[in-house]
Amino acid sequence: MAILEVKNVDYSYQDGDQKRYILNNISGEFEKGKFHAILGDSGSGKTTFLSLISALDKPGAGQILFEGKDIKEIGAESYRRNHIGMVFQAYNLIPFMTAVENVRVAMSITENELPADADAVAYNLLDHIGITRDKADRTVNKLSGGEQQRVAIARALSTNVDLILADEPTGNLNEEMEGEIVNILKNLAHEHDKCVVVVTHSKDIASKADVIFHLKKGQFEDE
Amino acid sequence: MNFFKRATTSILRRPGKSVILLLLIFILGTVISGALAVEGAVSNTEENLRRGMRPIVTFERDWEGFDEYIMGSTFNWDDPDAPQMGMLTPDHVRDLAALPQVQSAEYSVSAHVDVETVINHSIWMDQSPDDDFQFWGGGIAWLQFRGTGDSEPLQVREGLLELVDGRLFTDIELTTVSEVNPALVSAGFARVNGLSVHDTFDIPVRLFFPQMGGMMWDEEFITNPDNIFLEEVFTFEVIGLVDAVEEADFNDMSEEGHAALNRIDNMLRPIHVSNAVAETMQRFHADNVLDMHAYMAENDMEIDPWALEWLETDAGQAELEQVSIESVMILEDPLYMDDFIEAAADYLPDFWRVEPLAGGFDAISTSMETLQDIAGWVLWVSIGATLLILSLLITLFLRDRRHEMGVYLALGEKKGKIISQILLEVVVTAVVAITLAVFTGNMISGMMSQNMLQNEIANAQGDRDPWGSWSQFDQLGFNNEMSAEDMMEAFDISISIETIGIFYAVGLGAVILSTFAPVIYVVTLNPKKVLM
Fold it and tell me: Which of A12, A203, B136, B148 is the most exposed, fewest CB within 10 Å of its CB?
């Protein structure tokens, strides 16, 4: 069963007298245990699509259902807080905090039930994803790009959510790092039964996905 | 890593911005604290000065107010109902004495006579025995008889005069006029007139015919029967001798020393008698002047038309009918002075005012008010500046942190908690800055206001009349001047717990208000635009 369903979603903006559609009557389903890729060129609307399914923006029409419930009913803040983990191209970590503190921020915000020893959980999570204890205690601006993205993934996972959304997660990384990050995301889907949705323009990354959605002119196209 | 820990981490890990914020709040806080400290200091000093003053008042004619009135456009000489300078009567004193601020009240009737039968004594005679200190000269003494309604005259009760021999008045002596009336005289008066306790002396009170031409007011004139319409001799028994508690120091050449000698001399000159006797002496002219005019008319003597006209005026009639009195009241507390002055205005006759024993306070009160006004303005301007500058600074700082705010929003943090975090960061920094500013503001403003007050006090001292003033208080012997040292001693910059509380409330209030605009910025922040 799909954890996330997108049903007939439109997103447009007004350009003078004309209404220009970025997403036009788009639909799709995303399941747990699978690594999904949204593939598209620049300007195809893939980032807009991610912003809608992460409730950072609202669709003009249509529905986005999480576990069968419209995310409008869940509430955007609550949905982001308790149901999704996000990974950004620019990592979006808080620069004056350490790696473990960045993870702890997300853990303190969510209302999901978490193990009592939050620090130990955060350190374990970082360690599991390749950030050693030594690095976990460094402020994130002292870590490499790949390490920062690992911290961002650990942060996304730390709130014990089933849906991980990633926007060009390897966009700022070299090839070696890109491969490692993609493997981590893939493992999350396959070994931890998460639903992972990655927006990318890279066909290499998309080729490693279980499901690929080609986004072109605001619509999903069949391969 | 809840919002509280995020706030403290933010303060500690970004020391540059925290220090800038701290310094700015510290500087603005110092100004606010300084202004509050000056207001507090002025208030403390005023209270100390007032507390240091004796809560004594008398009542005087308000000649300035009267002049303003008659020079004003509403005054009409021909209007019989126009208010005129009134007279203070025992009824007024009774009404004023009933006011709640009054502890004790008394009035005194005075009479003045020119006599050749006794020598007037002055303390200056003790220094220069050869000079004539009879006031008018010409071998006659200008004597003041001061009445009392209390067996213990005011100056004795207030510790200015002490009984050195004999006794004070009895109650029955206060209300009766006899052939021989009791009198308290100064030890100096007794000495120069060869008097002791139980001795008697005569004082002739005379009503003279009006003089049309120039004449010499001397012993020859006042004893010439042709000039006298009526004479009554009052005989007094010395029941006690009094002397000044304050010692005369003829070696003190300072202005204060000179003023003290004048004060002691003024205090020792009057002869203390009962109000009843003083009233009889004072009324001698009024009770007989109409008879004198009738006698003069019968005997075809030349009468001054102005004198007759005067007697027909309200003031002239009042002089014929009423007794002129002075009153001194002691209030329950020096701090009741303003309330008493306000309340007394309803009971005093027209163009009379309360004269407090100001102790030099009036001389610097205007300066203190100005200082307080300036402090008030500085306070409001600095609060305004705090609101403006901090609003801008915090908004600028938050613009730098929009990325961080976007992350919190993207993670689903409640806006209320983000606002709480910002408030907490600002308030924690502000509390440190304000705590430091309490001391610096207090110290700086203390020095400034002390210097300003010192200058004002020095100016006020320079403006003093070296001969003292002619107020009733000086005549009664009350020291109406406070020394510069006493005034500076009253200066109190110490900041009270209440003022500190007000400062924290004002400072933190201004800081919290300053976060209003930045909070709007956060609330309207769109995480998608910031992060994607």
Answer: A203
